[in-house]
User: Fold this.
Amino acid sequence: MNLEYFIPITYMAAAASFILALKWLSAVPTARRGVIVGILGMLLAVGGTLLRLDIVSYQWILIAFAIGAIVGVPMAMMPMTAVPQRTALSHAFGALAAALVGTAEFYNLSGTPEMSKFTMGAIALEVVLGFLTFTASLMAFGKLQELLPTRPITYKGQNIFNLSILALAITIAVVLTTTLSYTWAFPIMCLLSLTFGVFLIIPIGGADMPTVISLLNSYAGLSASAMGFVLNNKLLIVAGALDGSSGLILSIIMCKAMNRSFTNVLFGAFGQVQTSTQTAVEKRSVRSSSAEEAAAMLESAHQVLIVPGYGMAVAQAQHKVRELFDVLTKKGVEVKFPIHAVAGRMPGHMNVLLAEANIPYDRLLEMDEANSEMAQTDVALIIGANDVVNPAARHDKGSPIFGMPIIDVDKARTVMVCKRSMNPGFAGIENELFYNDNTLMLFGDAKAMVGKIVNELKSGK
Amino acid sequence: MHTAGNVETLLWIFLLATFIGFEVIRRVSPLLHTPLMSLTNAISAIAVVGAIVVTGRQQSTLSTVLGTIAVTASSINIVGGYLITYRMLKMFKKRGPQS
Assistant:
């Protein structure tokens, strides 16, 4: 067959594979098939590209493949608790690739008749999005890995300063596109985009990471799509658009789960330490309890809901939680896990951790299902979650999380909160749940505390 | 390189692909949002196609160097992305082995 037809056919097959891959990923039973067909699509795309006649040398391509494989395999073997930072890092790589290809195309095409205004516009979009996503993802990685301070950092005039950097980069992009000259400004545009990426993440706190990671996912995809417009490659446009829409949907879901808008997430610096509202409740007392008491209550319960949060990931407590699940299930207690959409540091974070610990996924509940079961629940055990169970979201108009849909654990007969100390959670918001009459506080490291409860349950039979 | 009709076709493709993306991804269970993100990440490493072209054409040293870095970055995402997605999905079990 003629190559002229063969390559586009491999590309079409690749695009179809990617769509099927995402379709099959929608449910667990078909999801693995989705990954396989996704790999197939990628092999077709790469294979088809390597056949192109304008590729004159394979040396550097093969070296790059080899390095990619050597680095990629260990990156896939990271522990599941490190998945958010790994994801941020791979967004950075994806965006860097798009930005560098755009830069190379700019210098190859610049001054030739092939550089149309449309091509230049697409290059500018690809490069600006690519570079800003690159540094923003690296910053997100730094915060998630706790190499950088995880609290949002704000200063006066921050938003105006950040937006002027972006505005300047966009102005240069517009000038380059409309005039097709002033090529000396291109590196300045790149630098401004890189700088904007850094400043964009500085005011973002850990609680907003799920939204921001999703948004960066979307940008990386759109950047690849823009590359498709530059290179006149329809496969790139399709695959980039799929990634772009996926990231966008996830960030919308995350925003809704927090009852906040995009602007508020990006510019609101959620999670600064609040001092004003705290003094009023500080004098109230909490009921502290022990592992023995908790074990006895759990044992006599019919239904227990365990609500995990980021604290479980930090304490690496998921395997102990699984032991608790086993022990209680053996004793005939019904144990389920309500998962809030923004629990953890990325979409689906808790689900993956619990799956890693071998907890069957049909035991995991979405928030609405959990709330409808709350009245029949004897014990709600909260492990490392805070804001997603704060009843203030329902009634306290002054609270920063007012209006956020929460898991109504306070409606369970007894609430147990496993927590390191009385320090407020990541968002720095006081949680009135801890002071309720039906709340018992279990102070200590989540892993150690759950371990103690498991031992009590095992020895008590 | 780009004629008006061609530009229009590309924009149509983008429009329709975005809608397909929305419809397909809307149906993904929240249970699988993390694997979804790592899979779309691997898929968007399709940028490797552009990177291969830029590297292999050897138009200038600059574009070969930038292209090589881009191929490296995207192949990290291809290998790492698919592998970790598969690893994660293998962990999702309906009934865990009872000990």
